Amino acid sequence: MAWDFSTEPEFQTKLDWIQQFCDDKVEPLHRVFPHAVRWPNDAVKGYVRELQQEVKDQGLWALFLDEELGGPGFGQLKLALVNEILGKYPAAPQLFGAAAPDTGNMEMLAAYGTDEQKARWLTPLINQEMFSAYSMTEPQGGSDPNLFTTTAVKDGDEWVINGEKWFTSAGRVADILFVMCTNGMYVIPRETPGVEIMPEPRNHNHIKYVDVRIPADHLLGPQDGAKVLAQRRLGGGRIHHAMRTIAQCTLAFDMMCERALSRESHGSIIADHQMVQEKIADSYAKLRMLRLFVLETAWKIDQTSTQEARTDIAAVKFTMARVLREISFDALHIHGSLGTTDLTPLQDMYAGAPTMGLADGADEVHKATVARRLLKEYRPHEGNFPREFIPYKVEAAWDKMQPVLDANPDLKSAAEYYRERQSRRG
Fold this sequence. Notes:
Blueprint: H1 9-32, H2 42-57, H3 76-86, H4 92-95, H5 102-112, H6 115-126, E1 132-135, E2 151-155, E3 158-169, E4 176-181, E5 184-189, E6 195-197, E7 204-215, E8 219-220, H7 226-262, E9 264-265, E10 268-269, H8 274-303, H9 310-334, H10 346-358, H11 363-375, H12 390-407, H13 409-424
Parallel strand pairs: 1-4
Antiparallel strand pairs: 2-3, 3-7, 4-5, 5-8, 6-7, 9-10
């Protein structure tokens, strides 16, 4: 028996350090210098490097990477516990070298890149000497790779890329773009001629690739291997999103309870009103169930692989968006008009929930995937009635118990009496 919900003392010390570090240094940095990691000011950059060195000294840099790939090799379960803290602080993932979209792109490079590609791109990404974006979805096909039309054609010692990508997050400020084509995954420097970034949307960019020429060695992994690389990237990304979503839900829940105890209405604090109590109780249950689901899925990945845990990863993915939407809405509602403003994090959380339902694939697609995989484990019943049809169960029970009854006349008599009585009742 190995059920255990405790955290080993040595790692709890790390978690305590992370919490204190985020409270004392990460949060103030974010409020004074939003997006500090990308500030061009030398003094700001220097201070950011100081904080990042503290993280590195604790062995907490690039948490998501295995040891052989340059990270601490915590595994997904420990990473989940860390992300429950980091997810509350917007600046924390970058200060710990674990911010999307770079994390997924680094995982692809670490797993499929050549030594030369790792030296050229992976090491600078890990050190935040450059930043990246992931260019996958397309205007006409969303996230369905079967509908993609962006292609790479070999021309001598170059690839020529043509196509159009939609919702490339942070593409405008990336140094390199990981572009998923119908015949492979390619790394394209953003300033390459032919990369045209549209004015809108501002943060999740619409990019046209018009006769973009890149060297042959910018193909990442095997030719025609884009789907395999994408699944490697997105599987990890989905569980990491879920880990950080727990942090967001916890923050919203904490704010909800604090506000309920602080606000009066109709003669008493609103925490005394049953409809408020219902929201708090329901939110608590949803949060605890999501957290246990995410932690169990992370544990499964550690015990097997992302591929083996893909059904649970998909289920976690669509569950987290719903729980975030519901808890953030209830917290926003309990805050009243204040909750609808940008003076608390709640409006951003609630507005971000639909994005979580679409990022890395629409929730509906994942629900269908989960259902199909689960149904493969079952078989249809024979005849008109299910296996749990009670008359069938009674008949089978008599067959199983017949030797026992034959050996015990009194027990058999009691059984036959009860059967006769039941038959008379119709």
